[in-house]
Amino acid sequence: MDIQIVGVIGAGVMGVGVAQNLAQSGFQVVLLDVTAEILDRARQEITNNVRFQGFFSKEKNTLSPEQVLERILFTTEVQALSKADFVVENVVEKWPVKQEVYAAIDAVCPPHCIFAANTSAISITRIGSVTQRPDRVIGMHFMNPVPLKTMVEVIRGFHTSEQTIATSRDFLSRMGKECVVVNDSPGFVSNRVLMLTVNEAIFLVHEQVAKADEVDRIFKNCFGHKMGPLETADLIGLDTILYSLDVLYESFNDSKFRPCPLLKKMVDAGLHGRKNGRGFYDYPI
Questions:
Q1: How far is CA 98 from the centre of its chain?
Q2: Which of 42, 103, 152, 266 is 20 to 30 A from 89, comparing alpha carbons?
Q3: Alpha helices in the chain (DSSP H)
Q4: Residues 25, 89, 141, 244: which is the catalytic one?
Q5: Which of 21, 25, 120, 199 is labelled catalytic?
Q6: Cα–Cα distances in Å, from 53 out to 49, 59, 145, 146, 173?
Q7: Active site (annotated) includes residue 141
Q8: Are 86 and 3 in contact (CB under 8 A)?
């Protein structure tokens, strides 16, 4: 399938990164969110990110922010997806929200359009069940920051066709990505392991075994990790970590996925990590 127009749903951290990466790869992008204010912020973030990338890039022929933005339609109208060949969904990790989104886009997008869920934990088979095209629904778990991360975890739902997987591989290749295809299971491979690690690191702080920076230093200096688990939590977003743990806890009915009380308290207090400037560490906004 010749993919030309790609819908990106959700202009949060991941959606902005996906939209930028797609535009820089030559696709026409429709970036959809619920308010003009969110889209204005997304436009500014993409401008800043492309300038930052260009400043450090060794390549001479990188696109300017204006050239990248020309390829993106910013809109609040779901009807704008009526000609989309491929959609990447990036909304919050709450099933009622995703269910509503997929019902809406399934009614608007053409029959050949593939839906890729950029989800941290929610079942791809469950997402496919609320559409009329479960064979064209696939999981596509991008890493943050999307334009700089070359590996994507791709998830095969129960009904996902081989053709959908092959088209998705080609699509990611055009974005400069490699992928590993895994079978559907809540949390897949990456987050089933990562969320446990992050949650246990938060328990260590909660129980005053060590401070956040001490936990992270152990992982970086002892194991050679680029980031510690609590820095990673701030990068992903503490609200996203909590929602993902809730999904895993509900899916497996296993107490090992119960969220740490400190994580719940921080999310209730509005500490969401890098996205709003404060988590286990403070960040300039």
A1: 13
A2: 266
A3: 13-24, 36-56, 65-70, 95-108, 124-129, 162-174, 190-206, 212-223, 229-236, 238-252, 261-268
A4: 141
A5: 120
A6: 6, 10, 12, 12, 20
A7: yes
A8: yes
Q: pLDDT tens-digit profile of 142-154?
A: 998 999 999 999 9
Of 191, 199, 244, 272, the catalytic one is: 191
The two structure tokens encoding residue 29? 């992008």
212: left (phi > 0), else alpha (psi -120 to 50), else beta? alpha
Distance CA 130, CA 132 (A): 7
CA atoms 261, 265, 270, 275: torsion sign: negative
| Residue owning tokens 């260009």 | 54
DSSP 3-state assignment of 170?
helix
Type of residue found at 98: K
Q: Which of 45, 129, 153, 225 is catalytic?
A: 153
Residue 153 bears catalytic tag: yes
Cα diameter, the chain: 55
